[in-house]
Each structure stands twice: as structure tokens, then as C-alpha cells.
Amino acid sequence: MSDITLLPAVTAFLAREHGVFIHGQHLASQSSSNIAVVNPANGQTIAHIADANQAEVDHAVSSSRQGFTAWSHTSPAARAAVLFKLADLLEANREELAQLETLQSGKLIGISRAFEVEQAAHFLRYYAGWATKITGQTITPSLPSFAGERYSAFTLREPIGVVVGIVPWNFATMIAIWKLASALTTGCSIILKPSEFTPLTLLRIAELATEAGLPAGALNVLTGGGLVGKALIEHAGTDKVSFTGSVPTGIAVGQAAMGAKLTRATLELGGKNAVAFLPDVATDKAVDGIIEAGFLHSGQICAAGERFYVHRSRIDPLLDALSQRLGQLKIGSPLDEATQFGPVANKPHQQKLAELFAIARAEGSQIIHGGTLGDGPGCFVEPTVILARSASDTLLTQETFGPVATFLPYDDEDELLHLINASPYGLSASLWTNDLGKAMRMIPQIQAGTLWVNMHTLLDPAVPFGGIKASGIGREFGSAFIDDFTELKSVMIRY
Ligand code: TXE
């Protein structure tokens, strides 16, 4: 097999001079610096993007304030209609967006099509449906009447204002869609700051949003590094930040938000997610589960499994079977539809994984499979299986965010629960067993924002998602996001 042919629209988009997208149009950047966008599959520079300057930050915020006024006064039904139209346009431009996404992130083309575009459109339609269903409450005040007067009260859910959406590189398109959909369906405007590694699809989606009927300023896109994000959060004209990314950056974002002006913050961070197999799970089913939990998109998923706990009686055959399966994966170009395992997303990330492998070796962890980088300019990392010596090994405590599954055997359920919970993080976990009664008894004892049973990683727009402990603040999806993107106004009436 070989690479698919790039669409003419993709090559034409890459050849453009990329600026910033403010008030419904692309503007040539006034910034003196730009950033190269590199294809991680082959190390080639595919485009340059603007590293937005303070004047562009100011311009985007002032446009978003106007956009907020216009958009928050449209009817809920009109807002829903625009978002439904945008979902249609994502699908109509599926191949172009998927190819751009694969070129910028190294994601397998099939995953770009299925998740970054089709799933993103599905999430967008789910959020669009909420525009017409945001409600307050009526309340009967409880105070006694002093002189026969009566009271009535109700609450309103009002859009919070101008949102700053800061997007990571792992699902650059889909996560941006979650953020813009949450903001726009509640009546907020949003400025999206994509990762400097993966900015291209958002610049294209901004055009599609205008085509869908979004008024100027409701969505702006500013490209650049972390300082652009920081400047937006601290700007007097922004009201909320919705951040997805690493724990250290998330803490810095939270501090900047609180320190500046109590800017509201939703933080969806990473973690060190546990995957626990009870002894009754068949080896082949466990291998499927490990691949689903730890190796989808090379493990570059915030909810991916990283700590794998297997009963001591089952671990040897399981590691043998897993190594055999990983050895059969076809590693190669993400634009080749036959490839099953592509590169990681960028050079710094590949280097970080190399350093973690060196630490694992130095600590005496056993590398059962992989543990090396690929040759050549691409950011390839072998799928890796590690057997730790103890729960305190670095590979069992530090997020790899890569194609690395680290295992530790356990002897009984009490020990298993202790191991699962002995982490400062709590984004997700999964429990694998044929004994549903046992699972139901363990569920309340596991500390995680999302707990899957006999599955891992699948996100659904109707099911709230977010972390406990150091994995974040706030929830996306379901109705939970409404609390984060609106303010609650109480109204009391005397009559
Ligand atoms: O993420 P960052 P990076 C992990 C993964 C990876 C590591 C670093 O382990 O190796 O993080 O990746 C913007 N104020 N995850 O550096 O720093 C930045 O420009 C405001 C896990 O890419 O978290 C980008 O748009 N914004 C993760 C976004 O924050 C700032 C997904 C994310 O960058 C900023 C990605 C600042 N001070 C990486 N500094 C997950 N859990 O989903 C940076 N940014």
C-alpha cells in the first residue's frame, strides 16, 4: 500500500500565507515572528503560522466582545441552526480536514476521518441541541411575610461572556469543536488558541463557521505559543478560559486566571489512568482491552490507560500475548490506509519518551517490548510494554502520553484498590471483569472522574467527562458544561 493522494484543496491551503482569523476574516499577521508547522511523519515543514502579538490579542478580544453582544442576542433556535449547519460543513469537507489533521499531527488518516471530523460533527450536533434547552428554576422563597407581601424568585442561566479556548495537539480538531460548541450554544463568543504544533485545521474551520452563518467576532482564532494563551487569559476583556492540556500548564493557566481577575476556568488535564484486570478475564480479551486503553492514537489521549494492574497468576501469559500482538502491528506512514501505528505528534514529545525509556532502564524496570525510537526524521516510537519493579517506578507515576503500557502485578483486591487510588490524578480508570456484581461493589471505591467497565477511552457527548484531584476542574459533555459556560442570576420579586 502507499500514501493516499492529497486533495488539491489541501495543497492549496498549505501554500497559503497563514495569518490570524479575526472578525470573520483572515488577516495577514503583523507579528514579527512565525512558527513552523512540521509533519511528524517525515520531519518536513508544511506551513508557517503567525505567533500573534499583543496588538492582535487586543484586536481579537475587542472583536469577541462585539461578537458576544451580537451572538448572545440571537435566539436559541438560531444559534442551534448555525451549529447544525457547521456540523454539516465539517462532514462535507471531511477529507480535506482529515488530511490536514494527519499532516499536522501524524494521526492515522482513518482516525482523523472517524474521530476528528465525524465524531466532532456528532458532538457538535449534540451541543447544538442544548441551545434550546438551557433553563433556570422557579423558587418559592422561604422567608415569612412581614406585612402580607409575597415573594417569588427565579434563576436565569446567562452566557458568561468571552471565552478563551486553549487547545492541545493530540485531538486538535475535535477538542476545539467541544470548546467552540460549549461556548457558542450557551451564547458566549470564543477565541480559540490552537497548539503551536497543530494550528491548521482550526484556521480552516473558522472559515466554515463563517459560511455556516456565525456572526463576525463570535469565533476568532489566534495562533501562537503559550504566551498568546496567557495574554488572552489575563486580558481585561475575557471572562473564562477552557483549557485542555498538560498538568503543569493547566496549573499555570489556573493561577493566571485566578490571579488576573477571577477569570472562570475549566481545566481538563492529564493524569496517570489505571486499568485493572480481575483474574477472570481471558487473556485474548485482556490484550484487546490493553490495546484499546493504551495504544489507540499511540496513547496520546488524556484518558488513555497508563498503569496496568494484572493479577500475579495471569501476568506472564498476558505480557507474552500482548508483545506478540504489538509485534504484528504495521508501523508506517499515517497517510497510508493500511498503517496500524503511526508516529507520535512532535519531536519534543518523541524526545520526552526517549528520556522516560532511559529512566525506566536506569531504575531497573523490565522493557518487555519496544522501548526504542524509529530511525529517520519521523517521530516514530515503538509500541512499548514495561514491567515495573514497584508502584513508585517513574513509569507508573509520570504521565508518558505515549504508546507505553506499564504493568504491575497485584495479589488481592484490597491491594488493587490501593494501587489504583494511590495517585495524585483521577481523570479516568477502567475495570475489567466478567463479575458485574464485583464490579458494582468496586465502582464506589475507585477515585476517577470517569470509570469504564470492560471498555476504555470511549467518550460520549451525553456522558459528563472531567477529572478529579490534579486531573482538572469542571466537566464537559452532558448538561454539566452548562454550569461552566453560564452564570447563574437569581431574580426576586416582591408583590
Ligand atoms: O502541552 P501544554 P504541550 C502532555 C503531554 C505532552 C506535554 C507537553 O505529556 O508531552 O503535555 O505538551 C498552551 N498559558 N499533554 O507542551 O503545554 C499551548 O500553546 C496559556 C497532555 O503541547 O499543556 C497549547 O495550546 N496557554 C494533554 C496548550 O496550552 C499555554 C494534551 C497545551 O500545551 C501556556 C497535550 C500558558 N502559560 C499534551 N503554555 C492532555 N492531557 O490532553 C502553553 N499553553
From TrEMBL:
Claim: Transport is one of the keywords in the record: no
Pfam (any one): Aldedh
Residues forming the catalytic site: 268
UniProt keyword terms in alphabetical order: Oxidoreductase
Domain called Aldehyde dehydrogenase: residue spans: 29-491
Keyword Disulfide bond: no
Domain of life where this protein originates: Bacteria
Gene3D superfamilies attached to this UniProt entry: Aldehyde Dehydrogenase, Chain A, domain 1, Aldehyde Dehydrogenase, Chain A, domain 2
Signal peptide: none
InterPro entries from the UniProt entry: Ald_DH/histidinol_DH, Ald_DH_C, Ald_DH_CS_CYS, Ald_DH_CS_GLU, Ald_DH_N, Aldehyde_DH_dom
Family, per entry: Belongs to the aldehyde dehydrogenase family.
Protein's recorded name: Phenylacetaldehyde dehydrogenase
Source organism of the structure: Pseudomonas putida NBRC 14164
Gene (name only): feaB
